[in-house]
């Protein structure tokens, strides 16, 4: 058991990678807070974890809302006494719009869910980590956080910001027992397509060209294994960096 008795919060854990991470963390002995905006999905994940003998609870939170973030961390501490691992996974796509076609509404929503949320959960969890001089943050960025053609301008910028914030946080607290890393997944089979509305034909066409060199689509379980490595002591010397998991897509 790599996470025995650790308390882990996973945002966006009702589906896709978050669900796989929550499930694997519970199997490795963690007490998992399955957080999502979608109550039914989160309840289903918790039921599955409990059926398999794991410990998990639902805490609903829209990560784009500061008051929800406050409650998420606060209620986790009330229930389990502390937080050991924070996985910032919740995220949405844009509509592949290039700069000329980005609306303020789209930009603000994508940044609120993908980026500002990561700052807020990190800000709220840090006093707990600093008091213990121990804690781990795993951010789910994207290959789109390292490269320019994976999505529209809003999503790409939002994930580049997550990469920068990950490095800054890892650096700032490196001498206080806290690690902060990110995963940059390539294309993974999840339900994220549902968040793509009003697709921009020009931007989508440009984005699509890179798919020709993508070796394959990954599974959520493959990303969860990387999140287990980063969340556990196995990665004790890994901090302030990004692990790409994309089957070699971006090595071209
Ligand atoms: N699927 C991919 O190809 C891919 C590639 C790279 C990075 N990512 C990133 O992986 C992460 C997980 O995405 P996924 O592909 O598993 O998608 P998914 O849509 O299957 O799961 C995302 C979950 O986040 C939840 N969510 C959405 N908005 C939320 C909010 N405001 N507050 C709380 N929860 C919210 C959804 O309800 C859903 O359960 C995202 O950050 C995404 O950007 C995905």
Feature tags:
binds nicotinamide-adenine-dinucleotide, 252 residues, alpha/beta, 43% helix, seven-stranded parallel sheet, globular, Rossmann fold, 7 helices
What does this molecule look like?
With 252 residues, the protein is an alpha/beta fold. It has a single domain (7-251), classed as NAD(P)-binding Rossmann-like Domain (Rossmann fold), CATH 3.40.50. 43% of the residues lie in helices and 15% in strands. It has 7 helices and 7 strands, in the order βαβαβαβαβαβααβ. The chain has helices spanning 16-27, 39-51, 66-80, 104-132, 153-172, 201-208, 220-231, and strands at residues 7-10, 31-36, 55-60, 85-88, 135-140, 178-185, 242-245. A 7-stranded parallel beta sheet has the order 3-2-1-4-5-6-7, sandwiched between helices. The termini are far apart. 50% of the residues are buried. The model has no long low-confidence stretch (mean pLDDT 98). The protein binds nicotinamide-adenine-dinucleotide.
N-C termini distance:
36 Å
Count the E strands: 7
Q: Determine the CATH superfamily.
A: NAD(P)-binding Rossmann-like Domain
Q: List the uncertain runs.
A: none
Domain count, please report it.
1
Strand order of the largest sheet: 3-2-1-4-5-6-7
How much of the sequence lies in strands comes to 15-25%
**What's the CATH class, please?**
Alpha Beta
Keywords: Oxidoreductase
Organism: Paenibacillus silvae
InterPro entries: NAD(P)-bd_dom_sf, Sc_DH/Rdtase_CS, SDR_fam
Pfam family, one: adh_short_C2
Give the gist of this structure:
43% of the residues lie in helices and 15% in strands.
């Amino acid at each position: 058991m790599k996470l025995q008795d650790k308390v882990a919060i996973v945002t966006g854990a009702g589906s896709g990678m978050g669900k796989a991470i929550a499930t694997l963390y519970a199997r490795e002995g963690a007490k998992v807070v399955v957080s999502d905006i979608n109550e039914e999905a989160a309840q289903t994940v918790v039921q599955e974890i409990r059926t398999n003998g794991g410990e998990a609870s639902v805490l609903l939170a829209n990560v784009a809302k500061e008051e929800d973030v406050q409650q998420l961390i606060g209620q986790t501490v009330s229930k389990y006494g502390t937080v050991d691992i924070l996985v910032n996974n919740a995220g949405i796509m844009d509509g592949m719009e290039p700069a000329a076609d980005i609306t303020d509404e789209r930009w603000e929503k994508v940044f609120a869910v993908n980026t500002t949320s990561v700052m807020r959960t990190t800000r709220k969890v840090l006093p707990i980590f600093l008091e213990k001089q121990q804690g781990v943050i795993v951010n789910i960025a994207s290959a789109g956080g390292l490269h320019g053609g994976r999505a529209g301008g809003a999503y790409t910028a939002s994930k580049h910001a997550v990469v920068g914030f990950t490095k800054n946080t890892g650096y700032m607290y490196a001498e206080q027992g806290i690690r902060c890393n990110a995963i940059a997944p390539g294309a993974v089979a999840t339900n994220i397509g549902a968040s793509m509305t009003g697709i921009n034909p020009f931007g989508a066409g440009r984005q699509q060209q890179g798919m020709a060199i993508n070796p394959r689509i990954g599974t959520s379980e493959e990303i969860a294994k990387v999140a287990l490595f980063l969340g556990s002591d196995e990665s004790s010397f890994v901090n302030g960096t990004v692990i790409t998991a994309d089957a070699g897509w971006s090595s071209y």
